[in-house]
What does this fold into?
Amino acid sequence: MNERELDLQLIQRIQNGEQQAFALLVRKYQTRVANILTRYVRSSGDIPDVSQEVFIKVYKSLPNFRGDSAFYTWLFRITVNTAKNYLTSQSRRPPASDIDAEEADSYDGSGALKDDANPEAILHSQEVKQVILKVIGDLPDELKSAITLRELEGMSYDEIAQIESCPIGTVRSRIFRAREAIDKQLKPLLEH
Amino acid sequence: MKEYSQDISTLIDNELHDDMVIKHILDDTESQKQFSRYQLIGDVMRDESEGLDLRIDITNSVMAVIVNETQDNKIVPVATPEKVESNVVPFMKRFGQYAIAASVAGVVVVSSLMINQNVATDPSVTPVLNTVPFGGAAAPVSLQAKPVQTKSDIKERNEHLEALLKDHQLQLQVQP
Amino acid sequence: MKHRSFLVVLFSVIVFLVSPQLYANQEEATQQIITKQVQPSALTYLKKMQQAYKELNYELLYLNTAQNQIEPKQLIHGVLDGQRIAYFCYLNGGIRESLQFDGKISYYQQGNQAYSLVTNRDHSVFANIANFNFESGNKNYEYLILGKSRIAGKRSIAIRMTSKDMYRYSYIIWLDLGSYLPLRLETINKSNLILEQTMVVSLNVTESINPWIKRMSDQKAPDVLHLPQTTVKDVAPWELTWLPPGFKIIKDDQHKLMLHDTDPISYIMINDGIVSVSVYISTKKSTLTQQQNIIQRGGTLLYTKQQENIEVNVIGEIPLLTAEKIAASIKAAK
It folds into this structure.
């Protein structure tokens, strides 16, 4: 496996006792975990709590992680199991209670039905998305292409270099410049 | 900071093996946030942020639980065989859950720090300490604090009060 | 309104006392006495309430209000082979629920491992008044029927439990005249301001136990958490030289605050049968400069005082005056 793979570098550090390295795994994956959870967790207000539970489980089971599957696959499995436990705990509520009727459809598959969608959060999330897409749209073509191949197609620098017929160092710097440009607009949106 | 930005970008793309860069990020809050934002850019491009509150970052709360648990594990004497009484968990191992004991009881939890932002600019506003009843919205409760105190003093103070309140709630739970 | 009903009661008591002189016809006066006797006393109602609360199968939906915050909650209570089962749940926000049964209370919360605490005390909403010894409690409280009203669609009777001194709060309790279950409880201070209110909005009494909580009681409770034991040697090196009348010390130890790896703090708990008050005494000086700090939410007070080289914290549902007097009475134990 690629020794440059960030997940493995971080897991190794954690397994060597450097607990803090786990923070980067959380930072890297929290959006993806939350995104999986939206398919199961009806109340969007509960997502941070359930996400936290997922990462704590991941941390506790890391000593058992053998690296024979990709970390993300493993994380995905834990996330889905935690989400299912969440659904079970929801159904622990008595059938007699009036709120229970709604619960039958807590697994709606799409995550579209949220009973407590927070309008402010939605606005904010839309703004973030618009800003990112706008900046990408305005980027010079070679930067736009580099970041798209990397983020959407998941290509390595080597593959992108072949497609774009340029040195790997150039790919690295184009992707960075694209991120830097987006980050300039993004940063103020995420600071309060 | 600048010189690390590109390294962070490369690291995210699994194209860098450099212990110093990881070490730097771990030691530097700004770099960690930058790491998060770079990551978020990809998440948004892949439409993985749909319907999420992007203002929420759970990293610190996860790390707080982990650090706590590890410390607890350290205090548990090695000689205690954990499996002997399978239905009994040493209380000290359960710090995190203890907080909930208090909360479930329907308690006042003083939030760790919610100082009114206007304090510095508007002298007529009394510093406000929000009490956050478990799961509810925050309600301002007037705290007789003098403006000369620094935020970190007040934070420490509130944490202490919160610890006392939680202990009080726990004592109520197990009182004879 | 409350004042008026209070006056009405007071007035009828006066009429009753002076009636032999007022009524020329002795028979009429006797008639008056009989009607008075037919109405059960406040104490009788309160005792019926206690019995109903412990023995009936019921479900309550209720609201807790303190400082403009309303929290809807649910309680399902049942008795199975003489054993009480109580299920509690917050109806809004993340799921937080508890089940008390067989000497344990178990807590379940989204995102956290469930656990149990060993306890023989009822922790449900009206437990404090349901377990209070109203008979011996009349040293500190007076019970007075205020009048009838309608709560949660039920005919109910309001009883005021008035503190005889200024060191504790008073309460008004509404009971369902059908089942005698408590329907509403208000904590009021001496200016008759309502500090906290619990109001039932739906009451359902059933003949047999709710099958769902019956099933819950068959399940294995989550692991029990044990508090670190304190020993006699750990008795707090401080003593209270004043206690509000009717209060007794029920705990006296030194322990670390959970979640915080502090030095052990001296701890004393006092209780008057309704209210439990925690007193914490530590030598650590706070970083803050103020001598005194008061936080109040609903009926609960958190009072902090720096005196000489100690910091005292008093927490409980008591008036400020009481907390001040308790704090001022602290002396090093001999």
Q: What stands out?
A: The helical segments of chain B are 2-12, 19-27, 29-45, 59-75, 95-104, 151-174.
